[in-house]
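agent> Task received from the user: take the single chain below, predict its 3D structure, and emit structure tokens. No templates, no multimer pairing.
agent> Plan: (1) validate residues, (2) run structure prediction, (3) serialize to tokens, (4) report one or two observations.
agent> Step 1 OK, no nonstandard residues flagged.
tool_call: predict_structure(input=
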Amino acid sequence: MPTNIEARNYRGTRDYLRPESDLRRIVVDKIIGVFERFGFEPLETPIIELRETLLGKYGEEGNRLTYFFRKGDEEIGLRYDHTVPLSRVVAQHLKEIVLPYRRYAVGPVFRADTPQKGRYRQFTQCDFDIIGVSEPIADAEVVTVSYNVLRQLGFEEFEIQISDRNLLNGMAKAIGASTQEQIFAVLRSWDKIDKASREQISGELGNAGVSSGVIESFNKITDRLLEVRGSNEEILVQVQSLFPQNQEIEKGINTLRKLNNYLTLFGVPPKYYRISPTLARGLDYYTGPIFETVVKRAQIGSITGGGRFDNLIEKLGGPQIPGTGSSFGLERVITVMEQLGITPKELPGIEVFVTVFDPNSYDCQEESIKLISQVRNLGYKAEMYMGDGRLSKQLQLADRRRCPLVIIVGPDERENDLVTVKDLRKSPGGEKINQVQIKRQELPAFLEKLLKSE
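)
tool_result: status=success, residues=454
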């Protein structure tokens, strides 16, 4: 029965056909390769969590952007990130986990956000975390992993920005923020300092109940913070001079100083990371160092982000266990790679296409089935034609599949125990490479020469 349904996506989601899905898989494989090289192990969690698990962990904005719904008697929601599910797993399965616990997770997360370039309502996060280490060496390891992933993906010009929530909280209190709501409002304002006008920020602070005197102090100290220059150690010295004898700020600065020293030991070049005292990040569960990566040539926001969350596991029913980590937004990473022209030029596909000389002949089908079984058993990705088109149509299909090699076995080949191998790749001059006939028993060595020796 005909319907009036229009085939379309929910706004903020999308489908990935080839070659986009191939590119996504290549990028994810490279990211996972670095995670595992640093000793992280995989963890899979459901995309659905109980409402009580998600609610109140991210802050006001997170509560607003999380998809909550009711099913039967249960209130549930779609996961907003991988960090809260990780903390729930640690609280729930602590006896089965060996600390320190280094885990990674790759999968979709959901946010009821306004879609824009590089930002979707369903997107993939590649997340990695270290649970059970309170010292800044773990935070430095997180930054080191981020650096190595980005270099593995071909990024050359990027900056991992680093700050600390103790430093930020101390600075907010020092300028007069007196409640937790006002402190969060000041932190959010610092995080928006390069995205919104000072007038807009002042208006938002006023709406949050921040007094005009505190707003004036905010603007003055922000101007001073934006003037901070030099090496990471010089930046810390200058920030410390703005807030003398403040214990909370001192704690944050000491943490950042240790983190900076560890990064030197880990061999991360200083040009790839910078202490940024106004970096705040929006999630409420951060308790210490925070980090995000920007690519200045790209017309998009951060492509990685994370930080320390020492109280989150306790909030989910477990003991007080420290944690730190970060994540890569897959869609944003790929968008920037495409802008910079650093995506892989050759994407994987099938390697061998086996034709059927006469699709209406069972004998021809039988011969092609034997042939493709042999090719697959040799370890190659192969497809056999299963339609009713002529040989010319089959060759066109193989070309559209971006398949390099086509194998043809017709009556003459069968009679003489031969196969015809046609190479659809182009030589540097642009012309097609000639096809050749070889003995059937020579096929394994011939495929090895053409495909695996490249």
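agent> Step 4: summary for the user.
Residues 20-340 form a domain with the BirA Bifunctional Protein; domain 2 fold (CATH 3.30.930.10).
agent> Done.
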